[in-house]
Amino acid sequence: MTKLRIQKRLFVLLAVGPAFAGYMLFTLYPNLMSAYYSLLDWNGISSARFIGLSNFKRMFGDEYMWAALRHSLIYAVTVPLLILVISLFLAYLLTNRGYRESAFYKVLFFFPNVLPMVVIALIWAFIYDGNFGLLNSVLKGLTFDYDGYYWLGDEKIAFWALIPPQVWGGVGFYLIIFMNAMIAIPKSLYESAILDGATHFQRLTVITLPLMNGIIRVCLLFMVLGIFKTIDIVLILTNGGPAGSTDVIGLYMFNLSFGKGVAGGGMHTYGYASAIGMFLFVILVGAKLLIDKLIPNKQVEF
Amino acid sequence: MKQKNGFADYSWRLLMALWAIGILFPLLWIVFESLKTNREFFADIWSIPEKLKWVNYANAWTLLGVKQSMFNTLYYIGLSLLIGMFFTTVNAYALTRLDFRGRKLIWAMIMLSLFLPGINALVPQYVLMRSFSLTNSLTGLVILDSLGESALYLMLLGGFMASLPKEVEESAYVDGASLFKVFYKIIVPLSIPGIVTVAIFKFMGLYNNFLGPLIYLSDPRKYTIGLNIYYLNILMQYKTNWVTLFASVIITLIPLVFVYVLFQRQIMEGTTIGAVKG
């Protein structure tokens, strides 16, 4: 048996050793370092200067940061709710109503989830284009003339115009999760409800949704945290513009670190960007606690 | 359940059909426009092309850097997948089926990354990569992505391996097989479904990775496919060659459509497992 023990030691050493070292170096260490960076005045090239909490002081007085955070907050409420309602509704129809086309829809509705964010963003850029966009052209067919109107170029509209792409790309993933959760609910529960004369709506609100409480909660958490971390789709579609009207907290931080001086003015302000990153971390924890509180975790047995 | 035909059913079916159109229509529209000439496209976006312009695809492939970026992506994904899958598989085995001191601690430390936001690590990660001179390099991206984060995949595959019965190894040990032999003759073959699922998810994650290449690659000859169409889109605001851009977008989608059609069952099952465990 000692031979086996040596083999085991060797295997663990070779298997876990390099991977764990890589993980520590490329994942854990950078996460810890960002806390330290937030205390520095550093552009990544010149020597770093320790400035204590000055970055945080600057951050709380930074109106661009607050605007970006406000945008993120609005998205974090609207986008998850829309995705939740649409995906739950579609999941219910697909699992509880045996339409002929349901099997095809299941495959199609999930499809946007496998698309790269760049492609989703470009599709919507083509839809919203002023002169050759799909939307204006369809509206024209319905006798509304928006020719030459750039949906993403209008300060008041661009912010809201970014919601449909996020919903469009997000529904498929949750739809599949909700469908599988619905299939797991015993049929017998519905049968007795039908005998008691419950309508579809009653069955949905009294049986299906309460039994899915746990999974809905997890999904909502996933979505909200994801929205706060959003960078790519906004970066590609508007890069925070026009005039900062679509800037979100993740993108603001990203542009402060790597950007070409778009939103906040400066670039490569690593220290300040890291301070915002730390603040974002606090917001994410806060969002999690808030969701835990708002949606009580009722354990349902069936 | 039976097909019903009440008024409500018609409206539900209509709603689902609308959602289906909302997904399909923009995609088909891009395919349609990608087969026209620019002149036809600018004159009227609904006009039927006189002749299907497959040459747009050839132009996108050779003139707009799609070919180069596709090969770059192939290199980046191939190598990351190979190294990453190797590490994920051996680690999933070691961390779920071998007993050794410190195992629980290592597992807990890796799972910690699931709770980190990740977004604040971008800057220190960049500084780290720069100090190793791994920026502006596809190989650098490979190193970052195959060693950097794998907690979710480790959990997926580890869960799969943990569910294999203990007896499969024990009888082999009694027959005098070595641990390495047990691993690659018994554990790996039995874990193929789990390995395939994780590999598909890794593939899609790598193919769709946008921020990594955006941050690290500055040389256009090193662009990945996603980064390439991002810059093409910016370029097209000055150089109006839309039909070729449309063709590039469709070319980008083709590998994903293939993977989706082939592995649709694994993708949908893996989605559920990941969500339930996460």
Automatic annotation (TrEMBL), chain A:
Gene3D superfamilies, alphabetized: MetI-like (1.10.3720.10)
Spans traversing the lipid bilayer: 12-32, 73-95, 107-127, 157-183, 204-228, 270-291
Domain of life according to the entry: Bacteria
UniProt keyword annotation of Nucleotide-binding present: no
Pfam families associated with the record: BPD_transp_1
Localization of this protein: Cell membrane
This protein's UniProt keywords: Cell membrane, Membrane, Transmembrane, Transmembrane helix, Transport
SUPFAM superfamilies registered for this protein in UniProt: MetI-like
Membrane topology of this protein: Multi-pass membrane protein
Protein family according to the UniProt entry: Belongs to the binding-protein-dependent transport system permease family.
Name of this chain's protein: Sugar ABC transporter permease
Automatic annotation (TrEMBL), chain B:
Residues annotated as domain ABC transmembrane type-1: 70-263
UniProt-recorded name of the protein: Carbohydrate ABC transporter permease
Alphabetized InterPro entries for the sequence: MetI-like, MetI-like_sf
Keyword line: Cell membrane, Membrane, Transmembrane, Transmembrane helix, Transport
PROSITE patterns tied to this protein: ABC_TM1 (PS50928)
Topology versus the membrane: Multi-pass membrane protein
Family per similarity comment: Belongs to the binding-protein-dependent transport system permease family.
Native species: Cohnella silvisoli
Subcellular location: Cell membrane
Pfam families per record: BPD_transp_1
Transmembrane segments: 12-32, 73-93, 105-128, 140-162, 182-204, 242-263
Keyword field contains Protein biosynthesis: no
